[in-house]
Each structure stands twice: as C-alpha cells, then as structure tokens.
C-alpha cells in the first residue's frame, strides 16, 4: 500500500538512496533539505518521478505537512561538516528532533531516527552492544554531533513513553557508497579520491585505529526491515552496520588493491582529538529482530564506490 513519506536530509548521501528505494516501492516521497551538505544532483533519479516532491527547509524550524511516515536524517555527518558550525549541528539534532516528533505526534506518523555509533563515543566495550551507554566527552569538538544525537534519542524515547509515538531508532555505523561527498573528509572518500589521483594516502595517527564499513544498500535494507517488518513495540535502538572490523591501514590497502596505481601510505597528521580508537558493531539484535545482516563484501562495495568517484573526477557524474 502506498504511503506518504517525509524524508528529512533526503538530498544527502544516505537520504538520496532512501528516497529512491521508497519511490521504487510506490510511495509518495516528500524530501526536505537545507542543502548544507546535500545536493539536488544526488536526487537526479527522483526528480522526474511524479510521486516525488522536494522542499528547501531547515528542520530547526517547524514544518506542517500531512504524512504517514517520517525518516529523520537531517544532520551533517562528517566531522569537518558537523564541526563547521557546531551550534547549528546541535540545533539540527535537537530542535530538528523536537519538530519532527511534534509532527509525528500531530499526524500519528511512524518515525525513524538515524542515530549513530557516535553515541558510544570512544568505546570501552568492544564490539559495541546497544546496552552499552558509551564514553562521550561532552566538551570536545565531536560533542556537538555525539551529544546532539544522544539528546535526540532521549527525545524519541520520551515522546514514545509520554505520547505513545511509534518510533524506530537505528544506530548507524560507518556507511559508504556512491554519492558520498568527495570533500567531506571521510576516510573512504578521501582514500579513494587520493588513490584515483595517484596522491599519497593520508593516514591519521599510525593507522591502527579500526572501523567497520557497511555498504549503503545493506544499510538501507536494514532500515526497511526495522521500519516495515518489526512490530510497533520494537523501538530499537538497534545497531545497523557491518561487523567486519579493519584498521585504517588495511582499508588503505583494500582501496589500493581496487584502484591500482602507485599511491604510498603516509602518516599525514596525528590522530584527531577524541577520534575513537576502535569501533565495530555487535549486530546480534539486528540479526534476531530484523533477520538482517550485511551482504556486500568490502571489495565489491569499494569497486562500486570507486566507479562512482572515477566518473565524478572525469566529469561524468555531477557534484556541487
Ligand atoms: P549527508 O551530510 O550526506 O546528509 C545529511 C543531509 O542533511 C544533507 O543533505 C544536508 O544538507 C541535510 N541537512 C543538514 N542540516 C539540515 C537542516 N538543519 N535542515 C534540513 N536538512 C539538513 O550525510 P549522510 O551520511 O547521508 O547522513 C545521513 C544521516 O545518517 C545523518 O543524520 C547522519 O548523522 C546519519 N549517520 C550517517 C552515517 C554514515 O556513515 N554515513 C553514520 C552514522 C549516522
Ligand atoms: N511541530 C511541527 N509540525 C507539526 C507539529 C508540531 O513542526 O505538525 C513542532 C512545533 O514547533 C512544536 C514542536 O513540533 O513546538 C513540538 O511539538 P509538541 O506538540 O510536542 O509540543 P508543543 O511545543 O506544540 O507543545
Ligand atoms: N582518517 C584517516 N585518513 C583520512 C580521513 C580519516 O586516517 O584521510 C581516519 C580518522 O581519523 C578516523 C577514521 O579514519 O580514525 C574514520 O574517519 P571518518 O571521518 O571517515 O569517520 P568517523 O571518525 O566519524 O568514524
């Protein structure tokens, strides 16, 4: 059955893939975005669809529309973007959550929140399980993002308890794929662009810090299972990510294997302040409740992403 679905932050990397998926299911999709990091070009495949609407709007301001479901993604996600205007980052997470929860309360819409592995901070429990309460520095340069997302989770659970909203909270771990922003400083995009240009691959610190990388299609499939295939009393939070943990040095080697070329690994700078040393999701809960696990191996996902960036650098794909 077709639904009216609002996607905030829909012009971004993950949002644009989500809009495509929701349209393919036959839904009406209203995308709102202030274009801070997102672009219309990301939505090229959606713009001609009569079921798609796009509105320039900042979620820190109220929004009155009639919808059945909300996916709340609006928020810059990469450290250089969320640290560019940290006050606006916190406002986006917190005021944005209040406005979207207020909207969900009035329309009785089901609402999905794109939370993050950053709620665990620099974790002391490994791999991270949903019951772990995290190790976040509330005063550091990452706090605007981490604490903003933590407060958003608090608001989701208070609206759920107080106003009986139907909420679905996903804790997203590092996700990559086509339409990542080439200049947002994230490690996968940096390494691929550097390798394609034959430049040095920039490790921060000694490259032994770890992450676990989920391909975008797997991530979106996890959200679909969470929102559509779990009973209303399953709220999450649930980790959605790929549990294959690798060091940044190993990632650089994997990128070089796909791209080829002569780039060298260099230690470009010390590890940034509060940069987590280890991160890997425990996805036992997602396996059990969503019957989901990632399917796309790193090498395949990197190949698809390299193809996208290669097109971008040759001027075949658009970017703002
Ligand atoms: P992105 O930067 O590509 O997308 C975010 C979108 O939100 C952009 O289109 C941006 O313009 C928009 N936006 C920002 N502030 C806004 C505001 N005030 N009002 C309206 N729109 C606004 O990032 P992404 O990787 O697609 O992330 C999407 C969501 O997923 C974010 O909430 C992010 O925190 C979360 N997330 C992503 C990852 C990841 O690895 N990509 C990991 C954890 C969580
Ligand atoms: N809101 C919105 N759209 C709606 C309903 C509410 O943007 O359709 C915003 C509005 O700014 C409000 C906030 O959501 O302040 C929280 O709504 P809620 O009903 O929880 O609280 P209120 O502040 O209205 O008492
Ligand atoms: N990183 C790196 N070289 C780069 C960009 C990032 O070594 O050119 C490191 C960064 O310090 C961090 C990891 O890669 O340890 C992942 O960084 P990213 O910004 O992609 O994601 P996050 O830190 O938010 O998980």
UniProtKB/TrEMBL annotation:
Keywords: Cytoplasm, Decarboxylase, Golgi apparatus, Lyase, Membrane, NAD, Signal-anchor, Transmembrane, Transmembrane helix. GO terms for molecular function: NAD+ binding; UDP-glucuronate decarboxylase activity. GO terms for cellular component: cytoplasm. It is an enzyme of class 4 (lyase). It is found in: Cytoplasm; Golgi apparatus, Golgi stack membrane. It is a single-pass type II membrane protein. Its cofactor is NAD(+). Its main location: cytoplasm. Residues 6-304 form the NAD(P)-binding domain. One of its GO terms (biological process) is D-xylose metabolic process. This is UDP-glucuronate decarboxylase. It comes from Reyranella soli.
């Amino acid at each position: 059955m077709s639904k009216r679905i609002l996607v905030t932050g829909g012009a971004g990397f993950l949002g644009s893939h989500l809009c495509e998926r929701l349209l393919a299911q036959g839904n009406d999709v209203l995308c709102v975005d202030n274009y801070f990091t997102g672009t219309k070009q990301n939505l090229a495949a959606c713009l001609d669809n009569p079921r798609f609407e796009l509105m320039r709007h900042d979620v820190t301001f109220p929004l009155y529309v009639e919808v059945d479901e909300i996916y709340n993604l609006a928020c810059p996600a990469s450290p250089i973007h969320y640290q560019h205007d940290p006050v606006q980052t916190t406002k986006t997470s917190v005021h944005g959550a209040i406005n979207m929860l207020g909207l969900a309360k009035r329309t009785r819409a089901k609402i999905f929140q794109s939370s993050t592995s950053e709620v665990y901070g620099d974790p002391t429990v490994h791999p991270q399980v949903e019951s772990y309460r995290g190790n976040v520095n509330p005063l550091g340069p990452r706090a605007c993002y981490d604490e903003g997302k933590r407060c958003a989770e608090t608001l989701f659970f208070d609206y759920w308890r107080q106003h009986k909203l139907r909420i679905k909270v996903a804790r997203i771990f590092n996700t990559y794929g086509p339409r990542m922003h080439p200049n947002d400083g994230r490690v996968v995009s940096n390494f691929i662009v550097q390798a394609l240009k034959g430049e040095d691959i920039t490790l921060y610190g000694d490259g032994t810090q770890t992450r676990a990388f989920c391909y975008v299609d797997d991530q979106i499939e996890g959200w679909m299972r969470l929102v559509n295939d779990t009973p209303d009393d399953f709220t999450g939070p649930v980790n959605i990510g790929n549990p294959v943990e690798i060091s940044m040095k190993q990632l650089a080697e994997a990128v070089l294997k796909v791209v080829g070329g002569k780039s060298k690994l260099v230690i470009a700078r010390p590890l940034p302040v509060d940069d987590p040393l280890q991160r890997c999701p425990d996805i036992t809960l997602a396996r059990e409740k969503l019957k989901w696990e990632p399917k796309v191996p790193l090498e395949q996902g990197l190949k698809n992403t390299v193809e996208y960036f290669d097109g971008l650098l040759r001027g075949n794909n658009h970017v703002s």
